[in-house]
Amino acid sequence: TCPPLVDGQPETADNGAWVPKTTQVLQDGSIQFGDKETGITIPPNTIDRIIMCSGYDYEFPFLNDDSNLDVQFPDGERRVKPLYRQLWHAHHPNLAFVGLPHSILPFPFFELQAEAVCATWTAASVLPSVEDRLNAAQQDSVSCGGVPNGRIQDTHYLGNAQWDYCRDLAKTAGIYDADMEGYISVNKEIYDAANGLRKGGFPGGPDTYRSFMFDRDFVNHEYSLVEPAEVRETSIA
């Protein structure tokens, strides 16, 4: 979130300015950031290029109409359907899409997806009926992922919804127990701590949060934050 303007001017660093959300590009070439009362208007001929960061679409060139699988990834929707639990094709559960969700802790998440897929493909675990899978897929496609009142483009956004999703995957894989709960819980704590270190920094500025490390105790399900040397030296000074 952009900090409040000071005397009508945005916070700057080097050659960057942290401005409010773009609200309007006017015919004379000026650009309005934020509302007219509390925002700022950049006059014409001061901005050379506008880069539209609109996200990306999913594409699977090896799947097409000839595949006869009824898998869809429409342009502009940034999602794949119909999927059961954002992983298995609802009609054809022997086709799975590992790694679609975003805003997650990636590799532990993908590993649990793979465990769940392996369990169903080896008959160690059984998925619900086709009807139930299709109903769940339809519900998931209109619930907009982990964003309350979100857009269809947020279908694969999970955020805080990822932790219960991971628990469900572990249960499907038959590996959910006290140790797995500890593993998932500490993952969440580290994820939240890293997210807290990342937020508030100037966009495009130094990614100092990447220098922090987490020392994890897998036995006691605990972790400690290890500050980088330059941060410790600054604190001491």
Structure description:
The chain has 237 residues and is an alpha+beta fold. Helix content is 30%, strand content 13%. It is built from five helices and nine strands, in the order E-E-E-E-E-E-E-H-H-H-H-E-E-H. The strands form four sheets. A three-stranded antiparallel beta sheet has the order 3-4-5, with no helix packed on it. It is flat, with a radius of gyration of 23 Å. The two termini are 31 Å apart. The C terminus is likely disordered.
Question: What's this model, at a glance?
Answer:
This protein is of the alpha+beta class.
List the defining traits of the structure above:
single chain, 237 residues, alpha+beta, three-stranded antiparallel β-sheet, two-stranded antiparallel ribbon, 9 strands, 13% strand, flat, disordered C terminus
What's the helix-strand series?
A: EEEEEEEHHHHEEH
Structural class: alpha+beta
Shape: flat
Unreliable sequence segments: 233-237
Question: What is the strand tally?
Answer: 9
SS field, number of helical segments: 5
Alpha-carbon distance between the two ends: 31 Å
Query: What is the typical, i.e. mean, pLDDT?
Result: 88
- Spatial strand sequence of the major β-sheet: 3-4-5
Main beta-sheet strand count, sense and barrel state = 3 strands, antiparallel
Q: Give the helix proportion (percent range).
A: 25-40%
Beta content: 5-15%
Q: Using the CA coordinates, give the radius of gyration.
A: 23 Å
